[in-house]
Amino acid sequence: MFDKVLILRRGEAATRVARTCRRLGVESIVVAPKGAPASRHVEAADRSIEVDFDEAKPIPAEQLPAILEQAGADAAHLGYQGQPEIFELASAAEKADIAVVGTDLDVLGALTDPATLRGAAERAHVRTVHDAEALSRPREIGVLVAADSHGETTAIAECDRSLSTSEHTLIHETPSPELLFRSDGEAFRMALFESARRLAAELRYAGLLEVKFHIDPSGLAWVSDVKIGLPRHHTLIEMVTSVDLVALQLQIASGEPIPDELEAVEPSGHALDASILALDQQDAVVSSFSVTPAPQGGVRATSSATVGLPLPADDRPLIAKLTTYAPVRHRALLS
Which domains does the chain have, with CATH numbers? Predict the structure, then answer.
């Protein structure tokens, strides 16, 4: 396991990673604008490095080498999957010769090339949306897979993400209601898991990756995309599996194999995750913000909003996430 982890994101992702680092006895280091009031991710970490940059913008790429040298960390965590600056962050970390948690430049490059993804899918005997006619109103289901450097892969859980706008998924749900209400739902889930595992093995990535499927009206599944790294909707998957996904990332990135107990994990219960977004005035300072204490343990609210500061650039337009859990779906919906 690593001794020091530099978290190259701000906002909710950094707070989440720092929390696991503290539990594991790993020192966490974050980056903060010089002279700015302490934000939530700074308060969550063991140490912060102050850098002269605009807090409303991402960490400047040209300052990354100096930040990495000052941190003296043996690993850099890149936060959530799909962040726009991921290439710059990963390149700087690799040049500094420290372990990168959350991505791999070679795999990331391959995933940006549709032909490469199609080739990997063909070798894994998995259909892709590129092979299909235009799909009409498909459901979207993502399967989270853990893969290690020893060639082992494990499918952890699926997540339904069908309620969305053109840019953002508004509701994540696990298990998928599509599979709950199908007569062959469990068999279909196992088929999705196996397809996701085969594709993950072909990509030769060590870490967490999410294989996204489109389910057409006839019930066929087509791979639409693959994202590597910690999913933003990690909370609901952790609720139904009791698996600390950040700890799993750190274990795999440090060269450890996937724990044997992960293969035996059986998701239990039902969870939903709602994203609360700021649609206007994203640069405005947060004037007030509060989270009402949950009436029961099955409700969790997370946010990086800090009164007196703009929303962190890494989180926008996300203000908060509300996650509910219950043994059955209708109780999770009513929470």
Answer: 4-103 (3.40.50.20), 126-268 (3.30.470.20), 269-335 (no CATH)
